Design the sequence.
């Protein structure tokens, strides 16, 4: 039976996809240093171990700084680009947009290496700032994709109507356009934040002596003793990512409904 | 006393790149009239409307509103307001917030704002709808909100861009009547853009018929219908029959014509329209100017025998394609189905009455 085999395939696929992630909390609460079955008992000490760990705190602080900054910057750039592409026509528009969206599919390690070469070449010291720079580069295409769908649903005569009723171009943007694309803006901020928070390769190449959370996790994996703590940390990160992406998607859909458009894209 | 002019176009030209969208528009719209810009899609009527609103710049010429040149005056400072084809109701605001939007800058006290918004909602028949979310309204209600929102600023001119095209037939006919009443009530100059000739005839005091970026004819509905000055205006508004004709002689006020099916006719010079066409002259007449006579009836003026070639029954009306003896092709005749009058069959012979005075000569 065709449908039966398809079901087996779909089920196997989901197991392959999610089994490792389900193992994460399993070992995070397991009372043993070694990651192996059988489970020996329940504990929360790996979670409490995180609270007494200054290097981890520094990594979290750095990551939050990088993630917040790059999500704000890439969302702003995304607003400009989405507005420009949905409202104006200019020469080489399609080609230009293709180039902006390219980092989405470019191998990240290539982006990271070439950025490193360029930054070192022009003599810029590696720091969190360079990580932010790299993250803006990879987050902006996502922001543009989300915001374009928000701006596309916007009827042009809404702007004209506000302008016709005496508002200026700026107050029209503030009173009409911004509230209507706000769900898209929030969705873009959250997704860019999530991407930046767990991004490893670019951070690894461009951070210099600084540590972000993914770099910290990678470095800790050398010590078997630290692995259960990483499992606990990973559990928190997975939960956080799922929550943020869900909120982002809810806002994106609400935005489309608000502007009266049809759902045409999105990542979830 | 002459009616003052509200809007004046002086040689308005508009180019989009190489495309010549408006080719020298000269027209005056009177204060307080219901004026329509009528034409097929792409004729420039919406572009012309948007030059009044200030959404479209002009390449040459001048647009005057209430005697003032609008060059350099941005849309948000013009004494005009617009009802958009899509209504452009702000979906994130309530009905009252939409209607009061234009008064935001006036910074009125709260109760005064509420009073004015309430009065406007009453005017358009939406009392009590103020607190509703705008995105939850029906098409007809959106239309009313759009009207109230545009009228609250008491503009000198209200611009309406195909405001009824999104409504169904029943709703559209109802809104036509309401718009006429509303216009009389507020006394503001209305400029309507439409491609629907019936809508224009029903609603307007005067109509400008546009083709290819030019105004072909500007007249009141009756003149436009009875004396179209060109074949394309005649074709666009209602149905017009054409029969080949030959001008035999012209002297003073009389024109001697030989027309297929009608024979030799003497027409008044006022019945002649337009510039000579290379296709040659023809006689034009509306379907209701011919009457199919029944047994006992007598023609008032002239009559001819005809053969019925097609019958289209509409309930209140019947349309016949009838060929008058001597004609090479049939003409359309419309008859009201009054009580006791039978509907003729295809192939029937009938006597058709007509009057030379109802004919239009296109040279």
Sequence:
């Amino acid at each position: 039976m065709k449908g039966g085999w398809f079901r087996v395939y779909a089920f196997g696929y989901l197991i392959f996809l999610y089994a490792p992630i389900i193992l994460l909390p399993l070992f995070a609460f397991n009372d043993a240093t070694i990651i192996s079955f059988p489970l020996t008992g329940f504990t929360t000490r790996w979670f409490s171990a995180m609270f007494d760990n200054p290097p981890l705190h520094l990594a979290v602080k750095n990551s939050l700084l990088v993630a917040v900054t790059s999500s704000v910057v890439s969302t702003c750039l995304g607003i400009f680009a989405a507005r420009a592409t949905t409202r104006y026509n200019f020469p080489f528009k399609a080609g230009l947009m293709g180039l902006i969206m390219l980092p989405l599919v470019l191998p990240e390690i290539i982006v990271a290496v070439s950025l490193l070469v360029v930054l070192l070449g022009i003599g810029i010291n590696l720091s969190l700032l360079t990580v932010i720079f790299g993250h803006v580069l990879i987050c902006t295409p996502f922001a543009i994709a989300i915001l374009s769908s928000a701006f596309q649903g916007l009827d042009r005569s809404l702007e004209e109507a506000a302008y016709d009723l005496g508002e200026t171009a700026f107050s029209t943007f503030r009173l009409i356009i911004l509230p209507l694309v706000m769900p898209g803006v929030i969705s873009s901020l959250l997704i860019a934040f999530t991407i930046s928070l767990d991004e490893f390769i670019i951070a690894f190449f461009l951070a210099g002596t600084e540590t972000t959370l993914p770099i910290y996790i990678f470095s800790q994996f050398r010590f078997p003793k630290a692995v259960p703590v990483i499992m606990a940390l990973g559990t928190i990160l997975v939960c956080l990512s799922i929550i943020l992406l869900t909120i982002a998607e809810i806002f994106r859909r609400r935005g489309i409904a608000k502007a009266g458009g049809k759902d045409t894209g999105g990542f979830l | 006393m002459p009616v003052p002019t509200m809007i004046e176009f002086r040689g308005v030209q508009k180019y989009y790149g190489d495309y010549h969208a408006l080719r020298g528009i000269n027209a005056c719209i009177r204060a307080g009239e219901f004026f329509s810009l009528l034409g097929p899609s792409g004729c420039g009527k919406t572009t012309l409307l948007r030059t009044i609103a200030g959404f479209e710049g002009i390449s040459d010429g001048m647009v005057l509103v209430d005697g003032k040149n609008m060059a350099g005056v941005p849309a948000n400072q013009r004494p005009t307001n617009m009802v958009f084809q899509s209504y452009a109701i702000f979906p994130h605001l309530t009905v009252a917030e939409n209607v009061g939007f234009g008064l935001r800058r006036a910074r009125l006290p709260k109760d005064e704002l509420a009073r004015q918004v309430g009065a406007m909602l009453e005017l358009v028949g939406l009392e009590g709808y103020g607190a509703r979310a705008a995105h939850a309204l029906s098409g007809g209600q959106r239309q009313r909100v759009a009207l109230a929102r545009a009228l609250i600023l008491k503009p000198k001119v209200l611009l309406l861009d195909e405001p009824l095209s999104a409504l169904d037939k029943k709703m559209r006919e109802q809104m036509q009547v309401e718009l006429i009443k509303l216009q009389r009530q507020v006394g503001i100059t209305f400029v309507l853009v439409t491609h629907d000739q019936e809508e224009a005839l029903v609603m307007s005091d005067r109509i400008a018929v546009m083709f290819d970026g030019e105004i072909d004819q500007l007249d009141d509905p009756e003149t436009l219908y009875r004396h179209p000055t060109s074949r394309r205006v005649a074709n666009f508004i209602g149905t017009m029959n054409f029969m080949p004709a030959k001008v035999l002689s012209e002297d003073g006020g009389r024109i001697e014509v030989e027309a297929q099916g009608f024979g030799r006719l003497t027409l008044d010079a006022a019945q002649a329209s337009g510039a000579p066409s290379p296709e040659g002259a023809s006689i034009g007449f509306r379907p209701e100017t011919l009457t199919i006579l029944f047994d006992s009836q007598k023609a008032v003026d002239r009559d001819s025998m005809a053969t019925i070639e097609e019958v289209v029954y509409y309930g209140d009306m019947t349309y016949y394609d009838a060929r008058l003896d001597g004609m090479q092709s049939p003409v359309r005749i419309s008859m009201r189905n009054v009580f006791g009058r039978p509907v003729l069959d295809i192939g029937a012979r009938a006597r058709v009455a007509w009057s030379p005075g109802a004919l239009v000569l296109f040279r």
Observations:
- Chain A touches chain B through 18 residues (CB under 8 Å).
